[in-house]
Write a structure and sequence with these properties.
The structure is a homodimer. Chain A is mostly helical. Chain A is 69% helix and 0% strand. Chain A folds into two domains: 8-54, Orthogonal Bundle (Arc Repressor Mutant, subunit A), CATH 1.10.10; 58-187, Tetracycline Repressor, domain 2. Chains A and B meet through helix 6, helix 8, helix 9 and helix 10 of A and helix 6, helix 8, helix 9 and helix 10 of B. Chains A, B: Residues 6-66 form the HTH tetR-type domain.
Chain lengths: 206, 206
Amino acid sequence: MARWEPGAAERLQQAALELFATRGFEQTTATEIARSVGLTERTFFRHFSDKREVLFHGQQVFARAFLDGVTGAPPDASPMEVVASGLRSASSFFPDERRASSRLRQSVIDQNPALRERERHKLASVAKDVAAALRERGVDQTAATLAAESGATVFGIAFTQWIREDEQRSLADIAAEVLGELLALARQSAGAEKGASRSCSRTGAG
Amino acid sequence: MARWEPGAAERLQQAALELFATRGFEQTTATEIARSVGLTERTFFRHFSDKREVLFHGQQVFARAFLDGVTGAPPDASPMEVVASGLRSASSFFPDERRASSRLRQSVIDQNPALRERERHKLASVAKDVAAALRERGVDQTAATLAAESGATVFGIAFTQWIREDEQRSLADIAAEVLGELLALARQSAGAEKGASRSCSRTGAG
């Protein structure tokens, strides 16, 4: 059996991000990544199935964090409150120490259509899982899909903001703010549609 | 110059959909599509750059319809009202006569990851254009992105419902209802958050 390399996965990830960002994703091989931190190709493939996996390694953990927040919400929480709980939990997966490497990772992904696609697909599949979890809580299908997709939208916008160069707030704070802005937009529209006096009587589609 | 074939594009589209649905997208060639309606490969390529284009031919028109609704909304409309106007306009691109072929088209797309991806990408790029149009109306970037992405989400859910076998309502009606449900979900959450008169605000899906 190959010997254990302490922190090998983390070292490989950091090296990969830097090489991808400077040389380009396509132009960097797994062997080069391994060699740049004094490890072998074999060690690389003990941790990652290919160089793409280095970028999407945390994906499962992120999806689970989002879902844990959803399933952990109080039983009487409204669908949007459940999603808010999912967002808080998912945000805890991105503490401020990760901001720099998340930024670097995003710059690599933004430059490569196939990686962008995989990233989009990831968020879409988290939304699907969240919708399923909401249905299990008794939410009807349309409401579950709407709430879950809104959660994915809010996460995407908040994440983009979080990795901006001048941003200092935590991802959880930004996500809460963006979700609040979505709710405000909806209220604003409802108010304009109906007029204040009818705000209690009509709640369906316009 | 090749002679003009009346209705050739429409005949090719219908034939392509049927061949894709019965034989599979990958297994069908442009030549076979053309021959099945007594046309030549050359005629096919006068109308479409490849067999994928047969499926995505209306894409530009759909995107323009959505944007026309956005730019045509009254100047004082709230972002969500602007999106509602875009949804109404986009829905007019799918009259009930198109339901059967839209259903067939979707069954082809659902079976092919690359086509699904192109479809997702299409909706994402419409959302991007709508967000840009909202910013031009003076809406700030986060609100514009949220409203536009919500519009894309609502359209996707409404369209999926519209092509169900047992569905009779128009796409415009379904889209208005789904948007209304999103607004109700947001109000419900806002009410619970603020503790303001839950009996008024909790009326959405449960």
